[in-house]
Structure formats: C-alpha cells, structure tokens
User: Which sequence fits this backbone?
C-alpha cells in the first residue's frame, strides 16, 4: 500500500505544479456552470408558465438530477481525456516507464497509484461544483437525497471513465493520441450504451449494463446495489487491464 | 479446391455472425433458415481452422506466444468474473430510496395488495420499444413490483417484437397492461401504479361488485356532468372495477342481494317510510350505505335532510352549523368572506389571511342511536388528508348566527394559543351483524358513511384538495376493499417549486463565470512561479 501511496503523492504533485490540472478543472467548472445557468433559466421559464395555469412544477431536486445525471455525464467525456492523457503515455515518451517498472513495486501498484491520483482530481472538480446543489438546497429546499447520491454517482461514473482514459494512455506514447483514443472510447461507452437500448428484444435487458443507465439509477436519490457493483467491478477490471497492458511491454 | 478450403473459414465466420444476429433479433421469423446458417457456418469454420492448422500452431511454442496466451486467458477469466458478478447483482438488486417523498418506492397501499396477492398472477405490459422513456419507466416500475412480491411474474414487451405473446393474450392493443390469473383477465391503459394494484386485486375476485345509485327522490344523477353530476366519480369507480346501476325501490321491495354498496346522493324529496325501512333492513343484513346530504338551514327539519331518520338510527347526524377555517389562509379580515366554489385550493394555501367561512359544508357527527340500544364500535379510519402543512385539524364548526355577527367579534376565534376543535366533514359508522340461522353472510358488519356536503364529490369539486381521495377511499372502506385505500398522506409530498429572482440569477451567473476564472488564474500563477525559478 505504501508504494501505491508514494505513486499517488507523486502524481498529485506533478498535477498541481503543472498548469494542466488547473486548466482541466477550470474547463470542467466552466462547462458545468454554463450548463447550470441554462438549466436554471429553463426551469424558471417552465415554472412561470406552469404557475399561470396552476399546474404542478417539479421541485428543485429535478435540477439536482440534471446536474449529476446530464451535465456531469457529458462534461466528463471531454474533461477525462485531459486528465488522463499524460498519465502513462508521458512516462513512455520520456522513457521513465522503464525506471518505474524496475522500481520495487508491482505494475498494478503503479497503475493504481496513478488512477487514484486522477480520482482525487475528479473529487476536487466535483467538490468545486458543490455550490450548485447547495444553492438549490438553500433557495428551493431541494431534497438532499439526490444531492449526495448524485455526488456518489458522479464519483463512481467519473472513476470508471478515468480508468478508460488511463487504459488509453497505456496504449501509446503520444499524449495527444492518448487523448483522442480516450475521447473515442468514452464516446463509444456513452453513445454505445444509449444505442444498446434500441436493439430489439434484448436491448432493454442489456441496457442495465451500460454506464449511463447505472448513472441514472443513482442520481435519482436512490442507491441501487447493481449500479454500485457495476461501476466498482468495471473500474477495477479496466484498471487491471491497464496494468496488464503496461506489463505486456516487458515481453512484447 | 485448395482456394475454396482457404475461403471456408471467413465464409463460415460470416454465416455464424448472420445466423446469430438473426436468432437474436427475429427468432420467430423463418427459424429453419437461421438454424441452417448456424450449422453451415460452424461446419465451414471448422474446415477453415483445419486447413490453417499449421499456421495456427506455428508460433505456439515461442515465449511471446505463451505470455500472450496466458495474458489473454487471464483477461478472459476476469471478463467472466465481471459478467457473472454483474449478472448476479442485477438479479438480486436492492434499491434504497432516500428521497423525501419516497418517489421510487411503492405506495404502502400497493405493498399491502402485493402482500395479499394470490398465486398465479401474471402482468404483461405492451409498449413500443421505440418510446424508450416509457419503456424504461414501465420496466423500472415492474422491477419494483417484482422486488416487493417475487411470486408476481411481470413482463414488458413490444407487441411487434413478441407477436406470440401478444396473440396469446388476445391482441389487447399497444400501451396497455394486461393482468391475468387463469381465465380472469384485466386490460388497463398505461401503467399507473394505483391502477395496477386495483387490477391485481380484481383478477383475484370471484364476483363483480355492484354499486346501486338510488333515484326517485330528485337525487343527484350519477351519470350527469358538471356541478350537479358525479360522472368523474362514476368513471373512477369503474376504473376500480365497480359496476354502477341505478336503484328505484317500489313498495315492499328489498335492496338487491348483489349490492356491494347503496349510494343516496342528496335527495330533495322525502324518502317514504317503507323505503327507509328497506334501507335499514339492508344495513341490518350487513349492508353498506353512502349518504351525501346538503342540509339546507332555510328549510324545515324534514326537508333539510330527508335521510335524517335513516341516518340517525345509525347514530349519524348532519348538523346545521357552519365550517370555519381559523388559520386565516384566504387573506381577508372578514370571516364572512366566502371561499368560492371555484377557488383553486393551491391559491388558498399560498395566501396568509383570515378566518374563512365555508357556507355550504355542514359538520357531521356521531350521536346516540334512536331505536335500539346496541353498542356501536367506534374507530378512526383515516381515509383522506388535506394538502401538507395544514395539520390534522384545520377547520372548526360554528353556529350559523356567526355569519351575522360583526367581524371584530369573530377575530377572537383565531386567537393564538386556542387550538381549533377538529371537525369531521365525513363520518362512518359500522356495527357487527348479529347472525340469524341460515344466513350466509355471518359476521358481515354493516357500514354506513355520511358526507356533510354532496358537492364535495361532484364533478366541479372532485379534483380539489383531497376530495377524490375521500370519495374513492370512502367507497373502498364501505365495500370492504381496505387494501385499496390509498392516502397520499401516507407518503410525504414533494416540496413546492423553487422561485429564482433576477438578483439570485445574477449571483449564479457571477459564480458561474468567476469560479473557473479564479482556478485558471491560480494555475497560471503556479506555472509562472515555476518558470521563473
């Protein structure tokens, strides 16, 4: 565990001394905040129209679900490649991978340390958008359940995407190519998941094994054990796969 | 011949893919064709593998091949474990609903119905898969039902994709849910949770339930629309699988034996004593009666409430008083301010104001019985609740003369520290039937309910406040369908909508733009600092 901790600290240090992490966080915040302003504006327009006709309007928790179920989902697809692109590709490009691979730690420990460093950046990003549900709670008495299950969902979903980005970074020594591969894989995972539901007969059954569907199951204010198990197992699997890809460099 | 053998592998693989796709997508269509494709594909693929056996086995001995094969095998095992764990997790999924309104859990009434569900009930929802949101919502609802009652078999299907199932259930149409148990079958439009619970009970019933609506004394008609009719109530009762028939009793006639309930809605002419005796006898046999009365204070005792004699035998009294709202919700200082019949309840709730007089509703109460000394058993059955935030006792009854007093005197009624007395607007009475020899309905208890204003349940007021809930639950309680009694009060309500002022919106925009700029500037400063070292 101490080896994982050492890699984790090294990654965090390298993140925060370079402008990359700040750029990624600032971009994420900008996208999320703009989407939040649009959502809030649309909600207010709907509320006014409905109030004139004495119709029920969803509470502020509908906006909380928008934040975590929609905005976070799309923003992360574009931000995750920025965070993960240099994690392993840069090591290969600078030929420091050989040094790391001969260090007294396993490849899994190396990959896990780097992955946890990226997850920390994700947690910082999510914490920085915490003011959005907080305002909704203060002004609209939003149900707290979708707020905290939404954070959990975003963290699990984002971790899964980070593991895919890490895998993409292990496949090449070019950070740019790693980012493009990650973007392609993440788009495939998200849009492919949506497309799966449209396959006749078996589609609805398969849909529950897609990340988007599992994210939606958590952002509602509910915890579904299948969604938690899905994200944990898939993330661990992809992290393990990344370690195997890195390991394969020894014998390829 | 050798070239053909080399092509066998790719052709075989292609046939296998086409055959598998066919089997997955349209298995019912020309099954022999895709089966032939699969067999031919498997055969050709085997020939292809045999032809290339020397190429396939050549690198098997190298170190790289051994490492690669080991890595592939371990990845395959890992994939297998992940698939298995997720399959099991999906199969034994647990949902923990933390929302305030329990929005993703079944209503307690539905849970009660599912708990008492008989064996052999199956539910099939027919919805087009192209409408993904609806299809998903149905699937989630069905999963929730299945999690609550594993005995219940639920399927959601697209009629076009599963024509066999659609045919087997008698082509019920699209966007419907079919509930069946043996030969008993109910088809309901959509997939509303409450409707589904009612249908689950219906397929378990042996006989239909008939509600008799009394006519002949200028009662309010059940099938008329508008302020005088009860067509909305009739429609909802039919949705609850009640059969509605009219009843006009002649001299010496009895209430039909198949009556699940008799409704007498605000008769304006006196009910003859023989008829009163027939209803009384029906109740004594364990009958069920719902009386809606508009007591008119301007008329004599008999004209004001033609059902008084019958109801008072059962200890039910409609008084001549008024109903006041002491919590000042309508915004007027004069308590004689009348809440109009068409005043939307949301608006009333939103306003802080004064005492308000409800001039048409009458308080009802239990009283001593007139003609016998049988002991009545009282218990509180909560059948409806007002909107959240009103408390359990929002209204008080008052004397009619209050309407003539000056406003200053009436203001005292709402002094702080004087909690208002609760008042009933509907009341039910019941007593155990004393069985006679040979009576098949041994132990069935009589039930009667009185509502102090016939307008509560008419079409004009049916959707206001909790009137619909009151109407349906009174009927369900009277007919012994306690399992179907649904009170929204059992479930906490979602909160009011949020209002965002222009100042608040400006604050959001400032935060939205400011936060990323601050983070970007910090990053820039860090970069410049490191560069200058």
Assistant:
């Amino acid at each position: 565990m101490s080896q994982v901790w050492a890699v984790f600290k090294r990654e965090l240090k390298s993140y925060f001394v370079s402008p990359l992490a700040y750029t990624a966080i600032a971009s994420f915040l900008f996208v999320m905040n703009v989407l939040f302003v649009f959502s809030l504006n649309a909600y207010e327009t709907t509320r006014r129209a409905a109030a004139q006709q004495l119709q029920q309007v969803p509470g502020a928790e509908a906006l909380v679900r928008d934040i975590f179920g929609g905005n976070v989902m799309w923003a992360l697809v574009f931000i995750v490649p920025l965070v993960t692109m240099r994690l392993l590709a840069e090591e290969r490009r600078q030929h420091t991978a050989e040094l790391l691979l001969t260090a007294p730690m396993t490849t899994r420990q190396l990959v896990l340390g780097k992955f946890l460093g990226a997850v920390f950046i994700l947690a910082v990003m999510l914490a920085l958008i915490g003011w959005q549900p907080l305002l909704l709670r203060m002004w609209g008495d939003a149900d707290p359940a979708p707020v905290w299950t939404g954070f959990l969902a975003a963290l699990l979903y984002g971790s899964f995407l980070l593991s895919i980005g890490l895998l993409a970074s292990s496949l090449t020594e070019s950070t740019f190519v790693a980012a493009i591969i990650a973007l392609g894989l993440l788009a495939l995972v998200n849009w492919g998941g949506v497309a799966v539901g449209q396959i006749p007969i078996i589609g609805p059954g398969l849909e529950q094994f897609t990340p988007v569907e599992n994210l939606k199951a958590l952002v509602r204010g509910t915890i579904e054990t299948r969604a938690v198990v899905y994200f944990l197992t898939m993330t661990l699997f992809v992290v393990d796969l990344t370690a195997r890809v890195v390991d394969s460099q020894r014998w390829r | 011949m050798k070239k053909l053998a080399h092509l066998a592998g790719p052709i075989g693989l292609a046939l296998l893919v086409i055959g598998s796709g066919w089997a997955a997508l349209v298995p019912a269509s020309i099954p022999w064709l895709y089966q032939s494709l699969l067999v031919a594909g498997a055969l050709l693929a085997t020939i292809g593998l045999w032809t290339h056996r020397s190429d396939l086995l050549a690198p098997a001995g190298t170190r790289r091949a051994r490492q690669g094969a080991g890595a592939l095998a371990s990845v395959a095992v890992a994939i297998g474990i992940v698939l298995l764990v997720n399959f099991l997790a999906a199969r034994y999924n647990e949902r923990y609903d933390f929302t305030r309104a329990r929005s993703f859990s079944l209503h307690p009434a539905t849970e009660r119905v599912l708990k008492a569900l008989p064996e052999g009930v199956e539910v099939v929802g027919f919805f087009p898969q192209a409408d993904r949101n609806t299809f998903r919502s149905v699937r989630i609802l069905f999963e929730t039902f299945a999690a609550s009652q594993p005995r219940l078999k639920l399927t959601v299907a697209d009629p076009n994709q599963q024509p066999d199932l659609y045919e087997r259930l008698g082509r019920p149409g699209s966007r419907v849910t079919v509930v069946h148990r043996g030969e008993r079958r109910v088809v309901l439009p959509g997939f509303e949770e409450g409707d589904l619970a009612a249908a689950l009970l219906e397929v378990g019933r042996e006989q239909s339930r008939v509600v008799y609506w009394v006519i002949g004394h200028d009662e309010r008609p059940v099938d008329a629309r508008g302020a005088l009719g009860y067509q909305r109530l009739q429609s909802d009762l039919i949705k609850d699988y009640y059969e509605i028939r009219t009843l006009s009793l002649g001299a010496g006639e009895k209430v039909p034996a198949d009556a699940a309930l008799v409704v007498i809605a605000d008769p304006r002419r006196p009910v003859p004593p023989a008829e009163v005796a027939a209803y009384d006898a029906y109740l004594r046999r364990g009958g069920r009666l719902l009386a809606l009365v508009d007591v008119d204070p301007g008329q004599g005792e008999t004209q004001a409430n033609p059902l008084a004699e019958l109801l008072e035998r059962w200890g039910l009294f409609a008084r001549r008083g008024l109903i006041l709202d002491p919590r000042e919700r309508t915004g007027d200082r004069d308590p004689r301010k009348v809440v109009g019949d068409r005043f939307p309840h949301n608006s009333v709730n939103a306003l802080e104001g004064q005492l308000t007089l409800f001039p048409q509703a009458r308080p009802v109460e239990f009283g001593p019985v007139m003609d016998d000394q049988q002991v009545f058993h009282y218990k509180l059955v909560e059948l409806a609740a007002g909107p959240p935030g009103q408390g359990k006792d929002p209204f008080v009854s008052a004397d009619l003369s209050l309407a003539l007093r000056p406003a200053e005197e009436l203001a005292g009624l709402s002094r702080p520290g004087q909690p208002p007395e609760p008042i009933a607007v509907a009341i039910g009475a019941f007593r155990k039937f004393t069985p006679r020899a040979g009576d098949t309905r041994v132990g069935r208890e009589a039930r009667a309910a009185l509502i102090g204003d016939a307008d509560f349940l008419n079409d004009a007021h049916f959707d206001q406040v909790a009137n619909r809930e009151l109407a349906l639950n009174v009927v369900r309680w009277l007919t012994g369908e306690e399992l179907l009694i649904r009170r929204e009060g059992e479930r906490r309500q979602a909160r009011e909508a949020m209002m965002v002022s222009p100042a608040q919106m400006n604050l959001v925009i400032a935060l939205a733009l400011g936060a990323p700029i601050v983070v970007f500037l910090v990053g820039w400063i860090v970069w410049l600092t490191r560069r200058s070292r």
